[in-house]
Predict the 3D structure of the following.
Amino acid sequence: MQPLINKYKRIRKTKFLNSSYSGKYAFVGIGNHSLTNLYPVLDYLKAEIKYIVTRSEESAKAVDENYRHTKGTTNLKKVLSDKEITGVFVCATPSAHFEIAKQVLEAGKHLFIEKPPCLTLDELTTLESIEKKSKGEAFVGLQKRYAPVYQILDSKLKTKTANYYKLEYRAGNYPEGDALMDLFIHPLDLVGQLFGAAKIEYIKKMEAGKGVETWFIELSHKNNITGRIELSTDFWWQRGKEKITVNTDKQLFETTGTNNLKATDKPKSIMNVPLEKVKAPVISEHYLYEKNNFLPVRDHNELYAAGYFSEIQAFLDVCEKGKENESTLASVRPVFELTEQLKSK
């Protein structure tokens, strides 16, 4: 048995050490999100970052001093003219995304653009038009689409009859930007992915100062699915909450962030008589996904559970392996249409 175990470990180790990506990439942005969530995944996947583009010469110098095989620069045009560059990651200030995305696509490079790719539906239409003439493809960074919790939930809902869902998204004060586009785009995109196109039935918005807002929204989807959503920046960042509860014909699904997904069997009835009133039921709960904090391996790492690993790997596969892009600009059009309706109402 031990020789078989050792052989398996050698195969696994060799597979990890052999990089499957040979392209060279550039990265625009060196903020906290990039350093904490994106660079570690790129390093793990052995994707070569040739340039990091920053706004200041001071930051560019810091890149030169701390990243041995990467050059810091403030000159995006120079980077885009480099024929070795296969794709460009853009994770800058959201208000700058549109102009940078235009330049990358016009240069014929593949584009990974963090959410939001732009700020309005008109800007999205412009990017789509530029992309049609470009040799590059745009990939929108909405990493929760790739989180195991939501991918498993999506697969389960394809075989269940959903009745309604409830979504809670609570974060802290956000005075530095547009919460609807910068933060709430994630949960709004998720309900579109899980339940399809949405129609707004009810909206109430409350504000308690700059950066403190709460939205209560009721949406209707195809197949008579109704959703009630709470989106808020009137809580805490240290105790943020994202939870989705989905009621289906036979089970109740509940997520806790991207850490776990639980399915609870609903009690049975005979001729509309609930059997739990006749005999105490045995309630069955099934954990379809649960991040294991005991095992420090890739599949239980926070970046993997949150979807960053699979998202970035999917982009690299689009660039180098010709795989289908599941995060196109067109795929985010429904959430842009929804947010513009919310703003107008």
